[in-house]
Amino acid sequence: MQSEKASTFPVPQTLDAWVKQLDSIALPVPAAAYTKVHSALNDSRRSLREIAELMQDSPALVLSVLREANLKAGGLTEPAESLEVALNRLGLARTGTLLARLPSVELQSIPVAFRQLQLISQHATQQAYGLFANQLARLWQDIHLGSLLFLAPLWPMALAHPKLLEEWELRVIHKGESAKVVEKALFGVRLVQLCQAVAQHWQLPIWVTQGYDLLIREQRNLVKVLRIAHEHDNPLQRQQALDADLPLRRWLNQPANTILLANGLALSAQQAWDTPHNLRWQLLTSLYLQQPFDELQQQVHQNAVASARHHAAPGVWHPAEALLWPWEARRVHKGLLPAPAPSAEALQMWRKHCGDLLKEPSAFTNAMHLTTCARDALLAAGMRRTVLLMIDRKTDTLRVHQLAGVPSAAAALLIPYRDSTVLQRLMAQATQLRLTPSNNAQFSALLPVQLRSLFPGENLLIRSLASQGRVVMVVLADQGGGPFSEMTVQAFGKTGQCIEKALTTFSQRNG
């Protein structure tokens, strides 16, 4: 998650105080979704089902409508099991009044940490649909709503305390510290207990609170089923081992477990697809479905790609991006193959570009002309993806000046650097940083997520460039995310020196 501006909210230290604060925060709705729903509410030809479908584009709106409907019911009836039921309880007039209270915000202005968490929830819903919709068709509404809202108690926390969540991620996920110790220090309470308390207060679907209850009180059963999944490769052997413990089989086969499995898959995939944590959730799901692991894994990957097609957006990371590389690039990413060195022809082109950068007086008519040559030199040196950023000190941001091999939408990114310790270090003086599998977790967690998500993989070169003693540019480049060719690493360093010389010569010409 990306660092956001310092929170103006105090940090509660008790469960009741947390619930009260998170309950008070209005969740922003993307302006495009807001406009569509507002128009539909005022269109007498629209059915409740059509309005509910339009609302699905904004998880925050789904949650707000559901909370309002359950609040109106006053606990006298069961929580609404679908958005359509919630709309029917509220009525169109009260739904319109609720919509008017919610902030309508352009997507790019919604805090990244909040958008990232909602994307994980949408990915979880797609996993639930792909894995369980056919098998449990009659229960699909419950599965859909539960999987979307399972992480909803954390959404307002991402708005109020993004730095706390960022520190939790760094210490627990990347450094492997005890979750219990870290959460007590940061939040004063365990996160899973906080999520359960908020879910109960909002009267979220019963399967959501059951999922948290399972994580809190039934870990022994989780360990048992994981042991069965680990010890038996053959589905028949796994089924026989599970059948031998009938209470455990009944416990595992509860439909409510589907939303926990879907969210476990989506949340763990954010780190990587091949971590032990993600493997555990895949094994559990394979056992639940009695499906061979290889088939399950393939289906999970396909679901992730389907989610990315519907839900991916600029500035947030979707793990499906790591599945879209060609097979050879994946082998490189996994460390099985180094990237190839540049060919003789490519090196000849690289020398030509570097020669242009070193010319005196400067051969460039403007900064864009200069950075285009710099980008082409990096590509000729063997880089597959590169981004060149210029520093805007008035706004404390990095602006994309050139890019190659990354989504074109990245050209519009503005990267704040004050909240990133890594970027601040790079701003202080011309520095080169090389990310490898051994230090990737440490440094990636300290980089803005919009920037890091452009370079999936564990190997990355970052270099800040100075002109007349002051850093003016940052360059990021990789060879697909896998190990570098050492010749390309050397060429990257020399290219950086040539760009610095070109920047100084160009600034003197226009001084």
Which structural class do you get from the secondary structure elements?
A: alpha+beta
Share of β-strand residues: 5-15%
Instruction: Report the radius of gyration as a whole number of Å.
Output: 25 Å
| Largest beta-sheet characterization | 6 strands, antiparallel
Distance from first to last alpha carbon: 40 Å
Spatial order of the strands in the main sheet?
A: 5-4-3-8-7-6
The 3D shape can be described as globular
Number of helices, where a helix is a run of at least 4 consecutive DSSP H or I residues? 26
Beta strands, count: 8
Mean pLDDT: 87
* Low confidence ranges: 1-6, 325-336
Q: How many independent structural domains?
A: 3
Helix content, binned percent:
55-70%
Describe what you observe in this structure.
The chain is built from 26 helices and eight strands. Strands 5-4-3-8-7-6 form a six-stranded antiparallel sheet, with helices on both faces. It folds into three domains: 217 residues, no CATH class; 81 residues, no CATH class; 166 residues, Beta-Lactamase, CATH 3.30.450.40. It is an alpha+beta fold and 511 residues long. Helix content is 58%, strand content 9%. The radius of gyration is 25 Å and the shape is globular.
Short description:
The chain is an alpha+beta fold and 511 residues long. The chain has helices at residues 15-23, 31-41, 48-55, 59-73, 83-90, 92-101, 112-132, 140-149, 155-160, 162-174, 179-187, 191-201, 206-217, 219-231, 235-243, 246-252, 257-269, 276-289, 293-311, 327-333, 344-358, 367-380, 421-428, 440-444, 449-452, 486-509, and strands at 29-30, 104-105, 385-392, 397-404, 414-416, 432-435, 460-467, 470-478.
